[in-house]
Amino acid sequence: MYRFLLSRQWVILALVALVLIPTMVRLGFWQMDRYEERSARNQLVADALAAKPVPVERLTSPGHTVTSAERYRTVTAKGRFDTDDEVVVRRRVNADDEVGFHVLTPFVLDDGKVLLVNRGWIPANGPSQTAFPEIPAPPAGEVTVTGRLMPDETTEASGIKDLKGLPDRQIMLIDSEREAKRLGVQVLGGYLAQTEPEPKGDTPQQLGSPGDENAALNYAYALQWWLFALGVPVGYVVLARRERRDRAEAAAAAEAEAEKESAPTPV
Question: Is 225 exposed, middle or buried (0-12, 13-18, 19+ CB in 10 A)?
């Protein structure tokens, strides 16, 4: 009844199915791993944002690498802004995907150490972005700033190339060790994405809060791949039964036609 399954066409189809099933199962497990990773990162971000603010020097120090658990923690610092050594970070976009700069201002703490403060986004003065832009001044004198602690930026993590030969006072990536060499002082590891005090006139535009990664999408993809894997043998059986039925019907039709042709002709 199912001898046709030994034909070349059906053997190849069976082999393809045997390859597809474990492949789809593995893809489902890969998507589940992605789901768990994203869920864990979302939880780290949520825990960091929910934590009470602490003085910045409790979490970072010169040469320190900000960890995943410390990222997005709300910290405070007391000191003064040093606009003389201010730089801008190129090729940054705002919420409307407009290209401009991030303003990176050294913040001198009471003990002389420096905290790098990303005060937010400003538009570029022109398409070339070669001229140093006009930057609204931060509060003068001693002030307390609050913001989210962020790790130093790298090409690997951000996808941004660290270009050389840039215009004066412009950088591509925020790197506390490099800024320490430029300033000639001790600089705390990482930087602060400022949230308070809010700028006058809403400029620079402060950076938005981090959003959740869509972990549920990976979960849905995992279920989808496993359903596909289940559908392969089901589809094979359905096709085989349909082929058997079609062959049986064709054989019955051929037999009926043969009987009709062999029947004696009435006189």
Answer: buried
Q: Which of 30-39, 54-63, 172-181 has the lowest mean pLDDT?
A: 30-39
Q: What is the pLDDT of residues 94-131, one digit of tens each?
A: 988 888 999 999 999 999 999 999 999 999 876 667 77
Burial class from Cβ neighbours inside 10 Å (0-12, 13-18, 19+) for residue 13 reads middle
Q: Which residue has the tokens 């802004």?
A: 81
In this structure, what token pair is assigned to residue 149?
A: 């602690």
Contact 196, 9 (CB under 8 A): no
Query: Rounded to the nearest 10 degrees, how much is the dihedral formed by the CA atoms of 31, 34, 40, 45?
Result: -120
Distance separating alpha carbons of residues 123 and 93, to the nearest angstrom: 9
Helices and strands in the chain, H and E counts:
4, 8
